[in-house]
């Protein structure tokens, strides 16, 4: 009887979490996490934003300016936490409100990949599986206008926003010179098997155009084209390479033969 009670309690808690997530539309994603050494290391911030956009959230990096029309308590603060594991990588995701209270915590994503890039990306994608299962739908709960603030506080906020805008402009200027050359969808690429269920996509020269790495979903691969990283996903029996460039989602049709 006690076990049944605990199970029901956990189930109701999960439902409560899912409902409260639906009250929020905006999420702020940090560029650096406690277990990493540098900003966006292993593309964790980029992959986080990609997944959150796909769930349905409006997402801002921590160095971007959130519009004044959004109350700070209508914004969720996102984080990735690394769990201790032996010969494996365990990650889970948390969403906290403006008071630091956890609104939702994902299930743990586990990866046994040896390569750090693959392991962190795989574990994060698996953690997001539980978030996708919530079938998030924003219900307009807390996205309200900001209350009037004292003039001094407004001046300080404006100065901080100007500084953030300048930082964002510098990042955008730096990334504009590294634009990705699109793959011609009429060119057939052949999937050449690699170890561990991974592939490299080659053209008829043959040259390696892209490397793709398996995930828990057979219709989705982590993908790397030169220095650009994203995902290769199957939609309506057609493959697409999707990635972010200057904070814009780019989706390229890819002609692949496995």
Supply database-style keywords.
258 residues; alpha+beta; 2 domains; 4 helices; 31% strand; disordered N terminus; signal; DUF4468 domain-containing protein
Structure description:
With 258 residues, the chain is of the alpha+beta class. It has two domains: 2-146, Double Stranded RNA Binding Domain (2-Layer Sandwich), CATH 3.30.160; 188-257. It is built from four helices and 13 strands. The protein has helices at residues 2-21, 44-55, 116-132, 151-176; strands spanning 26-29, 58-61, 75-83, 89-96, 102-105, 109-111, 188-193, 199-202, 208-214, 220-225, 228-235, 238-245, 248-257. Helix 2 (44-55) runs parallel beside helix 3. It is globular, with a radius of gyration of 21 Å. Mean pLDDT is 81; it is low at 2-19, 143-149 and 171-179. Residues 1-18 form the signal peptide. This is DUF4468 domain-containing protein. Keywords: Signal. It comes from Flavobacterium flevense.
Topology:
Blueprint: H1 2-21, E1 26-29, H2 44-55, E2 58-61, E3 75-83, E4 89-96, E5 102-105, E6 109-111, H3 116-132, H4 151-176, E7 188-193, E8 199-202, E9 208-214, E10 220-225, E11 228-235, E12 238-245, E13 248-257
Parallel strand pairs: 1-2, 1-3, 7-13
Antiparallel strand pairs: 3-4, 4-5, 4-6, 7-8, 8-9, 9-10, 10-11, 11-12, 12-13
Helix pairs in contact: 2-3
Sheet-strand content, in percent, reads 25-35%
Instruction: Count the DSSP helices.
Output: 4
Shape: globular
| Topology-level CATH name of the largest domain | Double Stranded RNA Binding Domain
CATH class of the largest domain: Alpha Beta
Organism: Flavobacterium flevense
Protein name: DUF4468 domain-containing protein
Keywords: Signal
